[in-house]
Design goal:
By secondary structure, the chain is an alpha+beta fold. It folds into 3 domains: 8-41, no CATH class; 63-114, no CATH class; 117-147, no CATH class. The chain is 51% helix and 16% strand. It contains 5 helices and 3 strands, in the order αααααβββ. Strands 1-2-3 form a 3-stranded antiparallel β-sheet, with no helix packed on it.
């Protein structure tokens, strides 16, 4: 019940009931950060609404003329529009001699270029240290230890 409580006051009441029933269970739950396991402490703002909204706005703008047609005609027109777009994109990729799509290739090239400034070192057992080389007046190494 503590995990499903949707308000901090309700969560507090349930936690008190757990404390009365089993003190070790209560202590174990108190040691955990509540923002990771109880609804009452989850963030109420969505991290994805903006992205989804932008996608729907773009799609709605793309089908603006079709939106005012009768339903069956609208679906047929949107299907035709999508098929035309897929055909056009397929034709562009068949002309290309690249294995990757142009946008993905552009991102990959950027990350490959950025990776030149990173150095990975292994201790021979379980730990890696990753350092970024920054050229200003001198070399500066910033170490990030990663354990497997």
């Amino acid at each position: 019940m503590a995990a499903t409580a949707t308000h901090p006051v309700q969560h507090h009441r349930v936690m008190n009931a757990i404390a009365r029933h089993s003190r070790p269970a209560y202590d174990q739950l108190r040691n955990l950060d509540a923002k990771f396991w109880t609804k009452a402490h989850f963030a109420t703002t969505s991290k994805a609404d903006n992205v989804e909204n932008n996608m729907s706005e773009c799609f709605n703008a793309w089908i603006i003329n079709e939106r005012y047609m009768p339903v069956l005609t609208m679906i047929q027109e949107i299907t035709f529009k999508l098929m035309t777009r897929i055909k056009k994109k397929r034709k562009e990729m068949l002309k290309s001699d690249q294995i990757l799509c142009p946008n993905i290739k552009k991102k990959l090239d950027f990350y490959v270029t950025e990776a030149r400034n990173w150095n990975a070192m292994w201790d021979g057992v379980r730990t890696y240290a990753v350092s970024k080389i920054m050229l200003c007046i001198f070399f500066y190494f910033k170490f990030i230890n990663i354990k497997i």
